[in-house]
Amino acid sequence: MTKTDLVDKVSKSTNATKTEVAETLDAIMETIKQAIKEGEKVTLIGFGTFSVTDRKARKGRNPKTGEPIDIPASKVPKFSPSETFKKELV
Fold first, then answer.
1. Quick one: 19 and 49 in the same domain?
2. Do both 47 and 33 map to the same domain?
3. Are residues 56 and 14 in the same domain?
4. pLDDT tens figures, 11-30
5. pLDDT tens per residue, range 51-73
6. How crowded is residue 43: how many other Cβ atoms within 10 Å of its Cβ?
7. Are 70 and 59 in contact (CB under 8 A)?
8. Whether 45 and 86 share a structural domain
9. Within 13 Å and on the Cβ side, how many CA atoms surround 35?
10. Strands of 42-44's sheet in order across
């Protein structure tokens, strides 16, 4: 499902215009991204938690040449689904 598909479905189920739904969805996504950048967790009860984790620096290998390379430390976004959400998928 694409963002456009999601906007269409939400628009139909809420009787809101596609423009209103798209603007709301954009605002929600931007708020979550900003919170994650600031190191906060965003928990949506019944859905899951968005957070950021630190990935340590490590050694790797260039798959093309086989040469060893250093992979720097980085921050990685993470999503953990809630137990309720997991149970609904079964």
1. no
2. no
3. no
4. 999 999 999 999 999 999 99
5. 999 999 999 999 999 999 999 99
6. 13
7. yes
8. yes
9. 14
10. 42-44, 48-55, 74-81
In which domain, by residue range, is 16 found? 1-40
Which helix (H) or strand (E) segment is 37 a member of?
A: helix 18-37
Report in angstroms the alpha-carbon separations of 73 from 38, 47, 57, 70, 76.
17, 29, 4, 10, 10
**Count of structural domains, the chain:** 2
Q: Are residues 6 and 31 in the same domain?
A: yes
90 pLDDT exceeds 90? no
Residue 54 is predicted with a pLDDT of 93
- Please indicate, yes or no, whether residues 22 and 64 belong to a single structural domain of this protein: no
